[in-house]
Design brief:
Elements lengths: L1 H44 L4 E5 L5 H13 L3 E7 L1 H12 L3 H5 L6 E7 L6 H12 L4 E5 L2 H42 L2 H9 L4 H37 L5 H36 L7
Helix pairs in contact: 1-6, 1-8, 1-9, 6-9, 8-9
Length: about 290
Amino acid sequence: MSSNYSNKIFSNYFLVIISISIVLFLISSFTLIALNSEKIINDFKENIPVVVFIKDQSNKIELSKFEKNLEINNTIKKFDFISKKDAAIKLSEEIGEDFIDYLGYNPLYDSYDIFFTSNNVNNLFIDQLVEEFKNESFVEEVTYDAPLIDLINKNILILKQWSLIIGSIFLFISIILMNNTIRLSVYSNRLNIKTMQLVGATKFFIKKPFIITHIKLGVLSSIISSVLLVVILYYLNLNFFEIDFEKIKESVFITLVFSLGISVIISYFSTSIITGRYISSNIEKLY
């Protein structure tokens, strides 16, 4: 009998931990994405190049001066020089054949891929700079993806607004799910709650062990969800795309603290309210 009761308690708590861990993991994932959405957008903007194609037989002194001007320009994050030979190799790899053998010559140009800081990635600023580049005697052509930049800048505010709305809805649903999970857990002890009340225990005395237990379960669930989140981040970093942990460490810390805080707060208030309802209910309604 005692063994069956212990197994029932363990099974009940195990389901609570699993359910809350899943909810907290989803909350943490969305929170981390929301906190880093601007960083993600900025990183994307800073990887949109303005490509300056250089005429053949250009003056090396002029090019050297051009590079120095790029280096001291604080609106430019970085720039890469790509020789026509390297460009040809890359293009041949992309199309799957050596087009130089077919044409008999390399029609490509040396070029500079210029990347700007995110604050300066807008069509108005870049158009002005492009005109300056075109005025250089050694410049053959300047290209960049203007429609993409325009699309990003127009939709940043909309993206932030929708993130806030979706986040609020998601948090509300998560709170309901956690509350229902705790309610089912407390429900299985409703008769014990009423028995304690009938023998003269105060409301605080009855609530205390349930609150402490579910706060512990909430904290444990938060730890599990946090470990899972960090493991998945490292997995994504190793197998899919590079994550700069130095840049996101602050947001990861905030996310983990937020997850812990949410678990403790919801566990406390939900357990207290639900236990109080069973204390106040008629014994006939408990069956």
